[in-house]
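Run log // design_07
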């Protein structure tokens, strides 16, 4: 059973289904892991990294451990490649199962309020492909509202994402520079220059009637299927 990490100020959730084939996310993960044992010195945040595909190869997420890991975090990072204009499947399952009604949002769901959420993503498509006259047809920002609103529903401030477009064509020097920016940001949160200009998170109330009953909401369907098979 995976254990929650030591209390962290910055919690990095990494999700890459084929990390062994990754160039960019692997470099980013390495940069974050390098901060794990250094945190807390001289006022720097304590950083913890949770690699979802390594922790849960069977997709059986330990919800209590994930929620415990989130408890102390002031910054929650979602670090993953963009898959089908969204997040990889285990990251989505993490959202479905960990961000529960009454805990993350809805009546009594205040566990994440006041935290920051930072999307750190890579795309295969180069920046110019994300334009109305090119293959991805929309500017990349057009794919962000589901992320931003997920944060808002949980009372989290959605920070400007860090995105590396055209990941396969990025040079080694570009990947290294990107990882250095990432590490600098992780290690200096919340003292980022743009923080004062960011709007506070809007309040979003979700009535209980808009969600399934507690028992149905808490039982992951794939576990029910396994148990009854
Ligand atoms: C199933 C799948 C879906 C993908 N969907 C997208 C997409 O919607 N947009 C895009 O720009 N790239 C897409 N890609 C490319 C990945 O984003 C790209 O391979 C990744 O960002 C490279 O990072 P890495 O070096 O860490 O693997 C997809 C890749 C896979 C495997």
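design_07 sequence
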């Amino acid at each position: 059973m995976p254990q929650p990490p030591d209390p962290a100020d910055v919690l990095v959730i990494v999700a890459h289904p084929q990390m062994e084939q990754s160039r960019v996310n692997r470099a980013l993960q390495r940069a974050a892991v390098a901060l794990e044992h250094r945190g807390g010195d001289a006022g720097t945040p304590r950083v913890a990294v949770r690699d979802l595909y390594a922790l849960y190869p069977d997709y059986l997420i330990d919800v209590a451990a994930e929620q415990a890991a989130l408890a102390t975090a002031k910054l929650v990072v979602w670090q993953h490649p963009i898959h089908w204009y969204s997040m990889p499947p285990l990251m989505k399952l993490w959202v479905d199962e960990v961000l529960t009604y009454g805990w993350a949002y809805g009546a009594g769901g205040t566990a994440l309020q006041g935290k920051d959420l930072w999307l750190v993503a890579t795309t295969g498509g180069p920046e110019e492909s994300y334009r109305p006259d090119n293959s991805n047809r929309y500017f990349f920002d057009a794919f962000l509202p589901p992320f931003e609103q997920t944060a808002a529903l949980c009372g989290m401030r959605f920070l400007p994402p860090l995105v590396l477009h055209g990941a396969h064509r990025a040079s080694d020097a570009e990947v290294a520079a990107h990882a250095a920016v990432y590490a600098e940001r992780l290690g200096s949160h919340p003292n980022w220059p743009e923080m004062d200009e960011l709007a506070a998170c809007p309040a979003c109330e979700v009535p209980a009637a808009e969600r399934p009953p507690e028992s149905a909401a808490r039982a992951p369907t794939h576990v029910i299927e396994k148990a009854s098979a």
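The chain has a mean pLDDT of 91.
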